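Case study: Glycosyltransferase.
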Amino acid sequence: MRIGLVLPAVPGYSETFFSNKIKGLEANGYTVILFVNSCNRKTKTSTKTKVAPKLSGNMVRIGMISFYRLSYSLIFHFKVSRRLFILDRDDGINFIQRIKNIIINNHIFSEPVDWLHFGFGTMVLNRENVAKAIGAKMAVSFRGFDIGIYPVKHPGCYKRLWEKVDKIHVISNDISELVYKQGFNNQVPIIKITPAIDIRFFKNNHKTEYNKIPHFITVARLHWKKGLDYTLEALALLKEENIPFHYTIIGDGPQEEYLKFGTHQLGLNDYVTFTGKLSHELVKKKLEQADIYLQYSIQEGFCNSVLEAQAIGLLCVVSDAEGLSENVLHNKTGWVVPLRQPKLLLEKIRNIINLPQTEKDTISQNAKERVKLEFNIKKQQKEFVGFYENN
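Here is what the predicted structure looks like once written out:
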């Protein structure tokens, strides 16, 4: 079986979800072809990769590339180009966009595949007919942003997709519910395959020893959806109660200045450390030095960092945003707090600090065992093989 995987770029070092999926499929005899918008030469892959035409920059250059790609498609892939043009026309897509669709999907036409799988929901927009045009089945993966945020700004954006998709992949039950809320009523299956982590790497065999001064940690992109401002508000309240602590935030992103200024305004400069982006090895080291992991997101598809923290043995506190309440089982493998309520987060953190050591150890052990059993790479790879084989 041949699987065409449509992604923004070749998966990088940190994008383990896709790289592990590709390795698992290839190990089971599948042929995987990557269709990407860009390809960083520093990102190495042995998987066959086809790059989309770059239609940006100088207008003359864009015109020349477009003319070449369109001519090439009409000469060497006339049947596929004609089929896509007609399918798009029947959907009411205007003439200019139909021509654009032939040009931007030109790199896909030459590769016969059984499945064309769009790795993100937003990547399929205006390309809903490409799979049928090349004679393949279409699969689409939905994560947090694709279905939780993008449709808020673009209502009804997936209406055309719902009528054409053959199988949908989601990473949590809450994401599945959002798919239905966006108007999906087809009978094709929605399959949940959660993220997975390298449990051999994120492993801590040593008995957990808690710091005398509680050390909190978060690994996240500095983005509004991560709810870090609410986390800082809760910790400012903890400071007012004269409870000592330290908080480490690992990551970078567009809200770095906003969050650092908020830290200053809340009087937390001596309590909070921003490390920036770190390697996996350094992230693991920082996790091993911490006590409690905080992921108080406003919106979150699932979050690998929470899985990694649980595998290390940290006590995890998360919000109830989308997949986080599946990632952490409340009062069993960690704690789930309603989002946007820093006072409730404060109460939970205070309660955890005061828990007896035996209760902390039980929660920590439960989390480690569940991650090892439910969120390992081999299990995920087996599920993706079944995703394409099972009707």
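For the exam, be able to explain this: The chain has a mean pLDDT of 92.
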